[in-house]
């Protein structure tokens, strides 16, 4: 039986937020206040849709966006970590569940030749319109009150596991690696043999420790990481088993 590795993307695989990194393409590398203040909690995808319209209106083309996105830095140790996973695909299935979008993640992974490491990427579908504007859609509809309206990562993970199970694929352990508040919902779905790896000092770690203080800790084990070298050390132990 294999291990399933589930990665968030922003602030986990890359050390920035890919959606805010694209602002480097905007005139003077910033957005007008009215646009910046138009974000409403839980409606990030709609907000990014308006950002992409603004970039398109200002003549920002696909090739410039691609050039900018492929300069985004990977988190410390991630290049080595993904290399290690790639060499050990017989032990690991590996997926991304992210609130970024298909175009950005595809560009970044392909530029670094990491797209083969991942079996599937679940993120908001994006494409360029005939006018050359980037458009983005919600990943799915769901009924989870805890998650942003476009994406419940628990639902994605559960559906992926169900589909794998139907194909006769079950996992020895799920390792969930993330940083954000929207990673808590899938972490709470993990079982006691699974492991959550929240990034040190980020929202997910704070929310998990808050739950422990409130005496309703998550069921899975928790291992905090600060560099992807910490993640790799744990995965090496799994491979040795």
From TrEMBL:
GO molecular function: metal ion binding; phosphatase activity
UniProt key word DNA-binding: no
Residue ranges crossing the lipid bilayer per the database entry: none
Superkingdom of origin: Eukaryota
Residues engaged in binding substrate: 19, 99
Residues forming the catalytic site: 8 (nucleophile), 10 (proton donor)
Pfam family membership, one: Put_Phosphatase
Keywords in alphabetical order: Hydrolase, Magnesium, Metal-binding
Cofactor(s) essential for the protein: Mg(2+)
Binding residue positions for Mg(2+): 8, 10, 179
Family: Belongs to the HAD-like hydrolase superfamily. PHOSPHO family.
The protein, known as: PHOP2 phosphatase
